[in-house]
Amino acid sequence: MEEPDFPYEFDAKRRKIAQIYSKQKLMIxxxxxVLLPVVFLSLVYFSSFSNRLETNISSILAGTPxxxxxxxxxxxxxxxMALVFLAGLPISFYSGFKMEHDYGxxxxxxxxxxxxxxxxxxxxxxxxxxxxxxxFYLGRTxxxxxxxxxxxxxxxxxxxMSNIAHLVLMPLFFKTEILEDEELSARLKRMAEDNGVKGVxxxxxxHASDKTEKANAGFAGMGKSxxxxxxxxxxxxxxxxxxxxxxxHEMGHYANHDVLRYIVLEGLLIFPxxxxxxxxxxxxxxxxxxxxxxxxLLILYGLYSFIDPITLAYSRHRERKxxxxxxxxxxxxxxMISAFKRLSDIxxxxxxxKRIVEVLFYSHPAPGKRLDMAKExxxxxxx
Length: 383
Ligand SMILES: [Zn+2]
Description:
This protein has 383 residues and is mainly α. It has helices at residues 12-46, 49-61, 69-102, 110-141, 146-173, 182-194, 232-237, 240-255, 258-284, 293-330, 333-347, 355-361, 367-379; strands at 175-178, 200-207, 217-220, 226-231. The chain has 13 helices and four strands. α1 (12-46) runs antiparallel to α10 (293-330) and α10 (293-330) packs parallel to α13. It is globular.
């Protein structure tokens, strides 16, 4: 197969489209992620729809072996989550399917998109139902200390999920296979060894191109069963040197223990958040009725809007560290520069967004800053 040009230069036409695309994405993201959930949960709660939903479920179950608080709570959570999902479905379809097709970023068919939605909903119900009913159980049983116990459980849960998520979720959404390009596979494993990341067991190719044009890579697992994941889009569109650069960045996250750092940060933040939720929530409502859940979620949501900029700033800081790791491992900044440019053009990413947009929404430094850092590398080469 023919290799793409190297080094890659920005395509002026893609740059223009990227500006429009990223603005639209930002607007839709605000609507989908902020306005819609807040308005919907408020309507459900303050119109007393929530109250009636709980009453109806409990009268349907009355007299059957399934009656009682916990079964009502479980069914209520499932019903509420399903309603939130349905309320967001049109905008999900627009932003995740229609718009991505309009910009030539998606290759997914409608049935496949629906299948993915059903899978996502099922997974989120499987995870959130026990978590939410668990929190309400703790709130009822230990009114003084629930936030401490709930924080500890979530902390443990995040730790477990971070280790198994890739093994469960990746095959659920994508076809995968061992990378057949043995030369590349050996080179990536050698690069890992050379940079102190021992025990890469597999290099896995992810068939993402039947869904998306966007490229990605990842590093997961622990001990002797570490895996490198490569999207086929990355393999097809990027020069081999750039693939190594992208993998070196992912390796940086691993070598720098970033997953553990995020879990510790999120884990430490969850205690004060739950503490304040307790103070506000128990003032107005109680854990004795599950119909207060929308209020609980609204308060949680409100508090997290203050915390998100902190976790995003930390994430951007760790991404910079991973870039530095990659620059040191690759030793040729042109490779990183070329990879950033190509990635930005393929994903239609804005190179230099407004500072406020970066602060509020970006988990990675703006591409422009990543390019600047790589260019600085030319001036002060490390030996
Ligand atoms: Zn990264």
